[in-house]
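ESCALATION

Customer reports they have been waiting on this structure for their group meeting. Please prioritize. Original submission:
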Amino acid sequence: RYGVHPMSILRTAFSALAEYDDTPEEDTPSEQVSQAIRIVSKLATIAAAIGRARQGQPFIHPRADLTHAANFYYMLTGNIPDSFLSKVMDVLLILHADHESNASTFAAVVVRSTLSDTYSAIVAGIAALKGPLHGGANEEVMRMLQAIGSLDNVDRFLEDAMSQKIRISGFGHRVYKTTDPRAAILRSYAHDVTRRAGKEHWLETAERIEQVMAEKYGQRGIWPNVDFFSGVVMASMGIETSMFTPIFAVGRSAGWVAHTIEQRKDNRIFRPRFVYVGPEEEPYTPIRER
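Update from on-call: job pushed to the front of the queue and completed.
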């Protein structure tokens, strides 16, 4: 079926993956580590296969002579990366690997705290990451750059967006009130990646957006986050926009499994309380009268 978001496919495919694991319910410390290794490696293979299927291309099996990052790039694009592209993919995966108690990691840890299996916990993480306020933000950044079109249109686009109180994708973070250090690293790689791909206009547009936003909202602590430049880097590597978030998941899988292992070592189920703020009394209306 066409038109299905890759993250929806990844979520379902990964859930089915548990049925191909001989010991998905085994919960010993050694098996937790073994499962973690299998999960990180196989999730990358599944994500790459999804990308190939979307392009109508045959699946590519991993190679034993390539690193994890190089293998992923190879399985996704069909091209063996040179040392530079291999390094860039490695940096992308590392920068997305973990970021303490973010929404997807928290979702995974909550599920694991019930003593559900690790596969179920990672499915919860994938589901949370799909949201545009979390992992899906990198896709929105690239769509914004494509909508702007050229450097000359940046100021007008931002003025219109701000007047309509439209959120500018790739800016602001619940933790960082200055530039996300991951964004600074990706910006440095973006210069070389865009130049090699002949896509310098994307970076020029992004940097103009960053400049305008800094002038208008920097004092409020609204600065670029990791999503802002990651889209420029991945697009310049020839990666389809809809695959940005699955790549985020490939990197974040290492953080998910690490946190679930840590949670299991000293586990206590998450059980927060909700505070009811509705009316204290409501008249009862019999069902027949409703």
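Sent to customer with the following note: Residues 6-133+242-265 form a domain with the Citrate Synthase; domain 1 fold (CATH 1.10.580.10).
Escalation resolved.
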